[in-house]
Amino acid sequence: MPVSPSISVTMPCYNCGDTVAGALDSVLSQVGVDFEVVAVDDGSTDDTAGILAEYARRDSRIRTFSIEHGGVIAAANAAIEASVGRYIARMDADDEMLPHRLRAQAQLLDENPDVGLVGCRVRFGGCRSECAGYAYYVDWTNTLLTNEAISLNRFVEFPVPNPSIMYRRECIEKHGPYIDGDFPEDYELLLRWLEAGVRMAKVDDELMVWNDPPTRLSRNHPRYDVDAFYRIKTEYLARWLAANNPHHPEVHILGSGRTTRKRADLLLECGVEFAAYYDVDPRKIGNVVNGIPVRNRNEIPVPGDGFCIPYVGSRGARDDIMEFLEGRGYVLGSNYIPAA
């Protein structure tokens, strides 16, 4: 009776004929582990299916099949359902694994039975000058290595790049696969699993090249636009606040600009109440917006008397606000949580 591989690499594929061979070659170059590749062709109209079939013919570790075009979520879930490994690794058809990715992540899971999902540091594969925002995001995710760092930064942005994850099969069985909706399915899965208590960590090593082509789905589908991220983020943040804010439902919002208010005000629809907005701009301080005062940042309550949420997302501003709060004695996760 054949022995099932330890790791299943699941790869949804759609019209990726230009990149899928490179992605598969990088998977086949993995060392020190036994694995299978489950590549699902999502009704491609280019030569993707043919390339997958040729690779499967040449290497028995690759299994592939086609489904009617239903989008990346349907293809990703189909690959997961067809997989057999005790660990499941996600891979995108336009990225590249470095040779030790699977071994290093499986070893982290082997050595830490309390951890359910692992990622790794990733190498940005785009042009840093033309895609500076994405590169900055990658650099930020690479600083979040522990469960505490991932958990406490979950409402800033997606802290574990989806193509870099590996998780235990029991996590998908207990907490569910990707969900189709008007939100980024990968971010929603991570928020859902964290809320359920799944512990996460990263290998402190660069194990993937995360490419950023102009055709990347996250750049072109409305499911991944900024507003969609904030909608799903707000749903989970509101529940987190109900469980962790000792002053619930009242919070103090750092930032009062139009964009900040647009995003923060989604919390009002979830029953959260704002004591005030806080700013450093003298033109805004003293205003009242929809009945909520805008106060000088120096007027935030002392730690223990209020819970703060920084909602300013401009580069450098979040770090400045967190430094300001911690200088006042605020503790991340206990007295404040960043959300932008």
Automatic annotation (TrEMBL):
It is an enzyme of class 2 (transferase). It holds the Pfam family Glycos_transf_2. Residues 8-172 form the Glycosyltransferase 2-like domain. The keyword Transferase applies. Its EC number is 2.4.-.-. GO terms for molecular function: hexosyltransferase activity. Keywords: Glycosyltransferase, Transferase. InterPro entries: Glyco_trans_2-like, Nucleotide-diphossugar_trans. This is Putative glycosyltransferase EpsE. The gene is epsE.
